Description:
Blueprint: E1 4-10, E2 15-22, H1 24-31, H2 37-56, E3 61-68, E4 71-81, E5 85-92, H3 101-104, E6 105-106, E7 109-116, E8 123-128, H4 134-146, E9 150-157, E10 160-168, H5 179-187, H6 192-197, H7 200-208, E11 213-215, E12 219-220, E13 222-223, H8 229-238, H9 241-251, E14 254-257, E15 264-267, H10 269-277
Parallel strand pairs: 5-13
Antiparallel strand pairs: 1-2, 1-11, 1-12, 2-10, 3-4, 3-7, 4-5, 4-6, 7-8, 9-10, 14-15
Amino acid sequence: MSDRLYRFLFENADVRGELVQLDDVFREVIRRADYPPVVSRLVGEAMAAAALLTATLKFRGRLVLQIQANGPLTMLVVQVNSDGTLRALARYNAEVPDAPLNQQASGGALAITVDPEDGTERYQGIVDLAPGSLAAALEKYFRDSEQLDTRVWLSAVEGRAGGMLLQRMPGDATEDVDAWERAGHLAETLTVRELLNLDVSEILRRLFHEEDIRLFDPMPLRFRCRCSRESVGAMVASLGEAEVRDIVAEHGLVEVHCDFCNEAYRFDPVDVEQLLTDPTGPCPSTTQH
Length: 289
């Protein structure tokens, strides 16, 4: 089933894995932004990657995958909440070539941030982009920041995105000492078509039919942006009375677009007066005065 994240284990071996397939979630993100095909593919791969990462971390809160670079791609951000909601954005200042990631986002770095909702300290790991793909960058992240052997496969084509992650679990070695190498070799035969179109149980049978695999119940994923008229109104009020009045005088209203979902929030002069008079009160409605 699409828009699901699956976890699986190799029984009696020190290998675990995740599989994710995104359809509606990915299409909803790119529907709201006019990304060129190369950028859309990067966004899809990053969404699949961020979803996979949530299965490797035990937390309630938010995980953020971010690439910050000098260009042509300058920023790529995916936020995934522990309730299975995602949102994503990309920024670029020139045509992004169909090239290795470290050329698309030259001088860039990959950051993974875990922000627990219980108020405990945030965790962030940062690595330079590895030559090649986002999958290679993630493998470098786990190797350098987490000291975990990890393999990652990512793809995004024509409104579909997917990914698979294999990881060698820490701890004492099991009796099946060849399991990790064997799993990696078998997974290398996975094709893009299979990753994006086959049912997850069929993928696992196709790759690991001689292995004893335990497949857990899936986690549903969906698009949801955290922006709201209330939060945007509070941001507008925080700019200060002088700046907000200057914007209204020049443009006739204050208009803010969410970078993630491209939703437009408009505040006319009457709305602005209400915001400035009582910033902590109810946000003005969307009615134009």
